Amino acid sequence: MTYANLMNKFFNPNSMYTEEDFRRRFQMRRHVFERVLRDVQQVNPYFRQKRDRAGCPGFSPHQKVNVTLRMMAYGSPANSMDETHSMSEFTCLETLQQFCVTIVQVYKDEYLRKPNQKDLDRLIRKAENRGFSGMIGSLDCMHWDWKNCPTRWQ
């Protein structure tokens, strides 16, 4: 999908697709996409548009994040992106790797931190209200006996 086509379909003020269409296709709201796009651009120069050796513009930040999110949301293989987005398998995989590293760097303190006691208490209450008491113990598997556990891990 060319940059102009992508923008006309999803991002321009009078885009072809509605907010509901966007959410269904990207598995997120447009403003969340825009926030992620802005954040990864600020942190990682890979997500800023550059020119190739011939002076032609490379893939835009919108195109890179679009391809990455589609691969993750739908489990699309990297080699299928060439047909629809004219992005090679190598570039798709490189973009996916850059995206994942950058997302962890940007959001780890806010979203990828270990839960504190307050978080655990909230999760336990929520689980108990839904009939799943003991959920936290199930998640960490501490109550399971592993008969073939290597002795150095015991």
Topology diagram in text:
Blueprint (H helix, E strand, L loop, with lengths): L2 H9 L7 H8 L3 H14 L17 H14 L6 H5 L3 H23 L5 H13 L5 H6 L14
Helix pairs in contact: 3-6, 4-6
- Tally the helices: 8
Overall geometry comes to elongated
Taking all residues together, what is the mean pLDDT? 84
Main beta-sheet annotation = none
What is the count of β-strands? 0
The termini sit apart by 52 Å
Helix and strand content put the structural class at mainly alpha
Count of spatially separate domains: 2
Write a brief caption for the model.
The protein has 154 residues and is mainly α.
How does this structure look, described?
This protein has 154 residues and is an all-alpha fold. 60% of the residues lie in helices and 0% in strands. The protein has two domains: 109 residues, no CATH class; 37 residues, no CATH class. The longest helix is centred in the middle third of the chain and has 23 residues. The mean pLDDT is 84.
